[in-house]
Structure formats: C-alpha cells, structure tokens
Amino acid sequence: MNQSMINSAVTMGQIQYKLDNVGHNLANSDTTGFKRRDTSFADLMFRQVQNQRVGPYEEGRDTPAGIRRGSGAGVAQTAIRFEQGTLQQTGRDLDTAITEPGFFFELAAADDGTRRFTRDGAFYLSPAGDGTNQLVNGEGEYVLAADGTPAAIPENHSGLRIDETGGIFVTDEDGTEIAAGALQTVEITKPQLLEQQGAGIVSFPDLEELGVAEADVLADGNGAQVVQQQALEMANVDTAKQMSDMVAAQRHYQFNASAANMTDQMMGMVTNLR
Predict the structure, then answer these.
(1) Contact 161, 176 (CB under 8 A)
(2) pTM, full prediction
(3) How far is CA 153 from CA 89, 148, 168, 236, in A?
(4) Cα–Cα distance between 267 and 270 in angstroms, integer?
(5) Ramachandran angles phi, psi of 220, nearest 5°
(6) pLDDT tens column, 71-108
C-alpha cells in the first residue's frame, strides 16, 4: 500500500507541471510570435511481479503476464513547437511577419556574446541621435541588419517599405525611394535545441558542451522570401486543444488523488484491526 501511495503522489506532482505548462500556453495565446510548449510523460522505474505460475490460467490473457508495480509517471520532455502561426494583417509599416517556419529575425547579441533570435516582428523606431532611427523590438532590443549592425532608418522619410526578402526602402522628401539596408534573417535547422529567454526571444545553449557546431544548426537566411510587411504572426496555440488537455490533466490528477485516498482508507482499516 505504501507503494500505491508513492505512485499516486509522484504522478500528481508531475501532472502539476503539465497543468502549469498548459496555463502558460493559454496565457500567451494572444502574444505575437509565441511558440507553445508540449509536455510528454514517461513511466518511472517499475518492476514486473510474476505471481501467476499456472499456465492454463494465463490462456486468453491480452495484458502482459504478472503484475506491474511502478513508481508513477514523470515529465520526460517539454518541447517548444515551432509550427507556423496564423498571420494577422495590421496595416502598420513596422509590423513584419515571417511566413515560413524555421526562419527568425536576429537581435543584437547578449552581453556574453550569445546570439538571440525572434519571430516577433512588432518593431519600433528608437532615435540614434545621428540622423537615423534604429529598429528595436518591444523590449528595446536592437534588430540586426544583414551586415550584422543594428538596422537604421533615416529620420526624414515619408514612406517605408519592407519587401519579402527583408529589404528596407524609404521614400525621401523628393518622393524618391532609396534602399536603407535589409533585415537579418537566419534559418535554424534544429529549432528543438533552442531555449526560450522570454519576450519572444530564443537562443541556443552552449553548443560546445553539446558537441554541436553552429554551422550544423544555423544557416544564413538573407535573400529568402520569408517576410511580409504590415502583418504579425500570432501564437501557434490552439486554445480548444489546450483546454481539452487541461481537462484531461485535471481528470488524471483527480484519478490519482482518489487512488491515494483509497490507499489511505485501506491503511486506516489495517491500523484499526484488533
């Protein structure tokens, strides 16, 4: 009976991670560029008790022989899913959406040199004081141009156009359209290695520790036709699916809570035997 109590208690604790993850997905269902996380489970250590030694009694049995005594279930993985989200038209010139999975905008590196990426294309202008405005995301992080420097746009312009390859064009006071650089886009071939840093920003862990070269997970995406202006990619969260997952997880939690309660009642009956 102690093993039954342990089984239920361990599983309940792990199901709580699932509920927390579903709640996080639902809370960010309207966040631009958000990518959901899915939780998968695996059996913890178990042993097989072969208590039936008479062959004829096993005939017609569909389940494995004996009794399987486990220690519950544990979270095996919480994986980021990078499926394409729906595109929402905004009509705002600085809103840019990536239209293909696997591609990202690149932001200025972190203080430790870590490269950072995002699919949140809600950009803004930040005055640089030299006659240009630098392109930043909602957190004020610089968006990189194709040459690896922060993307800059002249202050005095009457129109802004970003083409499907990320090229930036502005219309000056004379009505002439001039090129003002291009957005840096990269293709990440192994997005499952990425780690979320918050605010729609992702980065790779220490690839040297993993024994992986950067060239094996990252490719230059400049020139690829993957950008759409005046649109934003919404979260790839299916609200109905997340709600059904939450209900299922709650039912599993209740089932294990009932099992723990039944074990407690049985232990109480044994304790009260005279």
Answers:
(1) no
(2) 0.74
(3) 23, 15, 8, 31
(4) 5
(5) -70, 125
(6) 667 676 778 888 888 899 999 999 999 999 889 999 99
